[in-house]
Amino acid sequence: MVNRVAKQVPTTCMRCAVGCGHVHLGSDTSYGLDAVRGDPSHPVNNGLACGRGIRESADPDGSWLTRPLVRENGELRQTSWSDALARVGDAITDAMADDPDEVAVLGSGQQTNEAAYALGKLARGGIGTRNYDANTTLCMASAVKAYYRAFGSDAPPPTYDDIPEAETHLVWGANPAVAHPVMFRWIRQSADDGDLVVVDPVETKTAAVADDHVAIDPGGDLALAQAVLGHLVETDRVDDAFVEGYTEGFDRVVDELSPVEEAASEAGVSLDEVEKLASLLDAPTLVYWGMGVNQSVRGTATAGALVNLCLASGNLGPGSGPFSLTGQANSMGTRVVSSKGTWPGHRPFEHPDHRRTVAEAWGVPVSRLPDDNGPGPVGMFESSPSVVWTVATNPLAGFPDATAAREVLEDSFLVVQDAFRSETVELADVVLPAATWGESEGTTMNMERTVSRVRPATETPPGVRQDLDIIADVAARVSPGLLPRPSVSPSDVFDEFAALTAGTDADCSGLSYTRLDGERAVRWPAPDPTSEGGYRYYDDADGEADDPTWSFPTPSGKAQFSALSGSSLPEPADESYPLTLTTGREADGYNTGVRTRSDTPDEPVARAHPDTIDAHRDAVADPEGDRRTTVVSRRASVPATLDPDDAVPPGLVWLSIHHPMTNRLTSPAVDPQSNEPNFKQCAVRLEHPETTASTDLLAAEVSD
Q1: Which residues in 153-179 are b (16+ Cβ under 10 Å) and which e?
Q2: 579-701 is classed CATH 3.40.50.360
Q3: What is the per-residue pLDDT for 698?
Q4: What is the spatial distance between Cα 674 and Cα 294, in angstroms, rounded to a whole number?
Q5: pLDDT computed for residue 596 by the predictor
Q6: Buried/exposed 234-270: b ≥16 CB within 10 Å, e otherwise
Q7: Can you give the C-alpha Rg of the chain in angstroms?
Q8: CB 11 within 8 A of CB 4
Q9: Which fold has domain 139-324?
Q10: Residue among 320, 324, 315 nearest 289 (CA)
Q11: Sequential DSSP letters for 93-130
């Protein structure tokens, strides 16, 4: 191999949704990265970077995919790109001829904006399927629905600039110390002169360093938010001027509130804790929430209730407001560009004029475009599609009730496009190896709407292709002319989707690669080459903060209070399943672990309070030493090792969401508004490992 001079390449970390700028140093003699560090010239992080983002960019531990694979005689074997793509094209074309909805497409928040846009264009405009998701329904859909209901538009009103301005930081159902380390550093610095309070059933790493921790019952978030709102009303803490001048629906919400004491009891908290939370809102407060709120059958209702608290207390404006914390690196980008929940630019699916605009821009019949955004991942699999194409995602481990998901994948023609081996790869009929961080060209969009460049610092290895080129090659076979033939210019694709957002609430038409190369990062809306978005819906052009102008893209121009009551929890603990399972993130985990396999034990570790372990000691191999057990839900049983942990309340079992076995246990119930699954709560019991093994053996004998 010819030696080459390594160069430092500015790019963006794709580890989480903070969107930190990185500098990558490519190897001067081979493929790969020699060094990774924070970029001091990037306006998002100014050189800060977390250790895991650096480690996983420089040297991920997963098993790389290096050649296309096809299944023959039950085994995956290497093949050529032309053979692999021909099989994919034939399978999709045959299924489309029967019914476009026979093709299910799953994207990811790990794709660049360009790849996400191209995949959505192909799924919606080329194939015409309703069964398409960009992975956002598994994590952010409830927050999205709440934003639309409140403000008429998606995305948090605040930005990172508001973090140092806030006096109170209320973190609800989120663990940014683990999930968003750089952002959490800003929160802690700001809270040095204010308050950091965490609402969570578990004493997370965030809660452990907070000024206060409100240990709520699992699933009690909606009741607690409503209790706090009721207490604001009772103690005359409502910002009447803001509510009367800029909102609608407040009286209806108040009329439907349960008594404060009753709601607090349902949430499992004291009235003193309700008062504590209400008093926090007297100061400028940022209310952050994450998967602990969103991933619930009550996710949209609870997210809306948290927005209600901000509206009622006047916590909307610089240094305050509702701030959902996004998980995957480019989840925001997929919301804007991928045609999952809306057409590009947040154009509504159901609006005929927007459908016509998109159809004309894409050169396809408007009748081919679905008139709704589809059933979400759970509903998609319930329809048993004949072809499933996954891109940078691992549904066999990431879907709820993963055993049922396996059955769907086994019965389908499964195409997996990814950079690393995964559980889903092992079931695939065709595997398409894709480039990953450090090898990709494009852009990404962080949780506060900032767009920045992703650049390759190393060449793509032989046998591996860019996501964008793979998607374009499939498009050439199933919908000729829809996308350029590979290799595709990412900048041309960026210009296409940016133009399609012109005049929308998520206007990116003033962005270009040239501008991003010069400014490093720009926040939308950016309708012209010099503008950049700030705090949303707020105009203080005269600099008089006491008399700002508010304008919301709702029919009345006012923000809307949410009156959703929320669904009943699908699986409360009972006599047969007396414990509650919840899931959470680990500091070094990554999605379903495909990049961090060396840190993933064969069997999950189940954290539980010592009293819980003692109460169920008959289900433990040896309570004094060997703490192996089996966690059993109504869907599956999973071997685990119990870890005594006072941070987990009695009656609760905590499993890492990153472990590929965890979601065999979780419930497929979904939020009726967002279709987001109820990952955070289901009923389980513990069984002795020998008892479970005997039961499994008997079941196998019966089936034989």
Answers
A1: bbbbbbbbebbeebbbbbbbbbbbbbb
A2: no
A3: 40
A4: 9
A5: 64
A6: eeebbbeebbeebbbbbeebbeebeebeebbbbbbbe
A7: 25
A8: no
A9: Dimethylsulfoxide Reductase; domain 2 (3.40.228)
A10: 324
A11: HHHHHH-GGGEEEE--TTS-HHHHHHHHIIIIIII--S
Residue 393: closest CA among 370, 414, 372? 414
CA atoms within 13 Å, Cβ hemisphere of 350: 1
The yes-or-no answer to whether 8-58 and 579-701 have a common fold is no
For residue 177 the two structure tokens come to 């110390």
Secondary structure (3-state) at 23: strand
Amino acid at 154: D
Q: Look at residues 384, 356, 385, 466 and name the one whose alpha carbon lies nearest to residue 127.
A: 385
Distance CA 633, CA 165 (A): 45
Peptide bond into 344 cis (omega under 30): no
Q: Which fold has domain 69-135+330-523?
A: Rossmann fold (3.40.50)
On the CB side of 466, CA atoms within 13 Å amount to: 25
* Distance in angstroms (rounded) separating the CA atoms of residues 661 and 21: 33
Instruction: Give the residue carrying structure tokens 């309708």.
Output: 527
Q: Do 388 and 396 form a contact (C-beta atoms < 8 A)?
A: no
What contacts 340, CB < 8 A, 6 or more positions away? 107, 120, 132, 133, 134, 136, 137, 334, 373
* Residue at 556: amino acid letter: S
Q: Can you tell me whether residue 154 is helix, strand or coil?
A: coil
Q: What is the pLDDT of residue 11?
A: 97
Q: Per DSSP, which regions of 327-436 are E strands?
A: 387-391, 413-418, 430-433
Burial 272-298 (b: 16+ CB within 10 A, else e): ebbebbbbbbeebbbbbbbbbbbbbbb
Query: Which among 43, 49, 39, 46 is positioned nearest to 16, based on CA atoms?
Result: 49
pLDDT of residue 6: 64
Nearest alpha carbon to residue 437 among 415, 406, 467? 467
Rounded to two decimals, what is the model's pTM?
0.95
Output helix, strand, coil percentages for the chain, rounded to the nearest 5.
35, 20, 45
Cα separation, 375 vs 129, in Å, equals 11
- Where the chain has pLDDT below 50, the residues are 1-3, 5, 697-704
Per DSSP, what are the bridge partners of residue 324?
289
Q: Which of 444, 414, 411, 408 is nearest to 432 (CA)?
A: 414
Helices (H), 351-424: 352-362, 376-382, 395-398, 402-411
Distance CA 560, CA 308 (A): 8
DSSP symbol at 320: B
| CATH architecture designation of domain 8-58 | 2-Layer Sandwich (3.30)
Domain ranges across the chain: 8-58, 69-135+330-523, 139-324, 579-701
Q: What is the per-residue pLDDT for 691? A: 77
Contact partners, residue 587, CB within 8 Å, separation at least 6: 52, 178, 205
C-alpha 190/C-alpha 176 separation (Å) is 14
Name every residue whose Cβ is closer than 8 Å to that of residue 114 and which is 6 or more positions away in sequence.
441, 442, 443, 468, 490, 493, 494, 497
For the four alpha carbons of 503, 504, 505 and 509, in that order, the dihedral sign comes to negative
Residue 397 is encoded by which pair of tokens?
């481990």
**Burial, 138: exposed, middle or buried (Cβ in 10 Å; 0-12, 13-18, 19+)?**
buried
Q: Which SS3 state, helix, strand or coil, does residue 63 take?
A: coil
Whether a cis peptide bond, with omega within 30° of 0, leads into 487 is yes
Q: What is the SS3 assignment for 357?
A: helix
Tens of pLDDT along 172-221?
999 999 999 999 999 999 999 999 999 999 999 999 999 999 999 999 99
The pLDDT assigned to 3 comes to 45
